[in-house]
Write a structure and sequence with these properties.
Blueprint (H helix, E strand, L loop, with lengths): L1 H46 L9 H12 L36 E5 L7 E6 L2 E7 L5 H10 L4 E6 L5 H4 L2 H7 L1 E6 L8 H10 L4 E2 L6 E4 L2 E7 L13 E6 L2 E5 L5 H10 L7 E3 L11 H7 L3 E4 L11 H9 L3 E4 H4 L2 E5 L3 E6 L56 E4 L29 H6 L13 E6 L4 E3 L14 E6 L1 H6 L3 E2 L6
Parallel strand pairs: 3-4, 4-5, 5-6, 10-11, 11-12, 12-13, 18-20
Antiparallel strand pairs: 1-2, 1-14, 2-3, 7-8, 8-9, 9-10, 14-15, 15-16, 17-18, 17-19
């Protein structure tokens, strides 16, 4: 009996030891499973933190897809910030400027005759776009001096022709420039060399289409030139300024060719105010371009000239678009102010002028000693009355001023939806009936007003189909294979399919 009990006890002890061993293995397996699960969870959480130096390819791909689905946020790259703490923000593109409290914006289109000059002011920052002819150096100098503008944040030479670059030396003789934009860094003319001379240590920046910068609460975007042309006018810097829900498009001397490249680029062109290209020349401001811009207002900078600027063709297109037109030749300097939603215009004279009349402007009074090109204006010379004084016509009167306040129902990008010339009675031309750019170029080659039947020498560019006077500076840039010397009448050349040079205006 005792032996049996001992045998039973040994069996029970063996079973207990076996059970304990099994339980130990189970506990060990459980611990291993828990450890594995903890490791997996730790790995997953660590892969979600930016700044980790190691990450599996599968996890990295998943992170990029997740970030790519968030608009405006670039995909995270954990290799870019090894050892980061996971709290650093990912940089993004700067957003459009927000209008500051008590923000102000205005553009002064200066009366510089058959030339271009405009000063843009926003929240104390300034940008001068072109400076008129060399004769206008004193005007520009005195205008800046009267307003104590000693620093121009930006100075823009839309292209190097004398009627745009000439007066910039006068501006730079009084004020310095932070940034200078021009489509070229060299040009063979005295006016351009003077511009470079007075820039001093400020280099010329050749902008690219798509570049943008802020001017106070306004955003400025360079739209063109998209591609360089053999024709200087079609290399003009084209820029668009957005201030709140209003916008302003400056086109230099861009003609149909550059307008076409802008349209093809798909850039935003819709603007409240258009500075009309090339002083209202016939081969600028085409229907297709004008439909895309859809301006409520247009400003033409022009003066006494022999080319018929602004031409009937351009004025007709603006009339068809229902655009209110202002002109420096008829109304003097023009001031435009924006509050971010509406624009208000003031003119120096003739607020009720018929701005749709084509042809030559009255002779503009100029000081006798400013007839020749000068490199340096005389800061001590008193300006002739009316030359540099920009005076609004009785701005407190509602009937005598040149004020035109027309609220524009606009989209957030400043695209004008309404506008028109009051009392014009003209409806906007439908898209179906408007001619395309190619048709415009072929139309009415005899449009310029100075056609003559007198035979004389010309130089033809068989590549661009432009014709020039032999002494035109553009002639030296024509390749020999594209140059053809021709003696005949202007009508004959136009009949051959050629158009006049916009620089020498043959």
């Amino acid at each position: 009996m005792k032996k049996e009990n001992q045998t039973a006890a040994r069996g029970m002890s063996s079973r207990v030891r076996t059970g304990r061993k099994r339980n130990g293995w189970r506990l060990l397996m459980l611990l291993l499973l828990l450890s594995a699960l903890a490791y997996v969870l730790a790995s997953c959480f660590s892969s979600m933190r930016p700044g980790q130096p190691e990450m599996s390819a599968e996890t990295s791909s998943g992170t990029e897809v997740q970030n790519a689905a968030v608009p405006g946020k670039p995909a995270e790259n954990p290799q870019m910030d090894p050892g980061g703490d996971g709290d650093s923000e990912i940089p993004s593109e700067p957003s459009a400027p927000v209008m500051a409290e008590n923000s102000t914006f205005e553009v002064v289109f200066l009366d510089v005759g058959e030339a271009d000059a405009a000063l843009v002011l926003c929240d104390g920052q300034t940008m001068l776009i072109d400076g008129g002819n060399s004769d206008d150096s004193d005007l520009i100098y005195t205008f800046l001096k009267d307003r104590e503008i000693r620093h121009l944040d930006y100075i823009v030479c839309s292209h190097p022709h004398e009627d745009h670059v000439g007066g910039l030396s006068g501006a730079l003789n009084y004020a310095d420039a932070g940034t200078a934009f021009c489509p070229v860094t060299e040009y063979d003319s005295k006016a351009f060399r003077s511009f470079v001379k007075y820039l001093k240590d400020t280099p010329i920046t050749v902008p690219n289409a798509g570049d943008s910068f802020c001017l106070g609460s306004a955003e400025v975007r360079i739209l063109g030139p998209v591609a360089m042309s053999d024709f200087v006018n079609n290399n003009s810097i084209v820029l668009r300024i957005v201030y709140g829900n209003t916008s302003f498009l400056f086109t230099g001397d861009a003609e149909f060719e550059e307008e076409g490249t802008l349209l093809d680029s798909g850039c935003e062109l819709a603007s409240t105010v258009l500075k009309v290209g090339h002083h209202g020349a016939y081969y600028s401001t085409g229907y297709r371009f004008l439909r895309e811009v859809s301006p409520a207002f247009a400003v033409i900078s022009c003066g006494e000239n022999e080319y018929g600027h602004p031409t009937e063709g351009t004025l007709s297109r603006l009339r068809d678009a229902g655009t209110t037109v202002y002109r420096t030749d008829l109304q003097g300097s023009i001031l435009c102010r924006s509050d971010g939603d509406t624009v208000t215009f003031f003119v120096e004279r003739n607020p009720d002028a018929d701005t749709f009349q084509p042809g030559l402007a009255p002779e503009r009074t100029m000081p006798e000693d400013s007839a020749e090109e000068t490199d340096e204006p005389d800061p001590d010379r008193e300006p002739e009355s009316g030359m540099t004084e920009f005076v609004l016509i009785d701005p407190d009167s509602e009937t005598e001023t040149g004020e035109r306040t027309i609220p524009n129902e606009q989209s957030a990008d400043g695209n004008a939806q309404t506008g028109g010339n009051p009392g014009s009675g003209e409806e906007q031309k439908s898209e179906e009936t408007a001619p395309e750019v190619a048709e415009e170029i072929a139309q009415t080659r005899s449009a310029p007003a100075d056609s003559t039947s007198t035979a004389r020498a010309y130089v033809l560019n068989t590549n661009t189909h432009k014709f020039h006077y032999p002494d035109c500076s553009d002639v030296s840039r024509i390749k020999d294979k594209n140059r053809q010397d021709y003696t005949g009448t202007r009508e004959e050349i136009i009949g051959m399919g050629y158009s006049p040079c916009g620089h020498c205006h043959p």
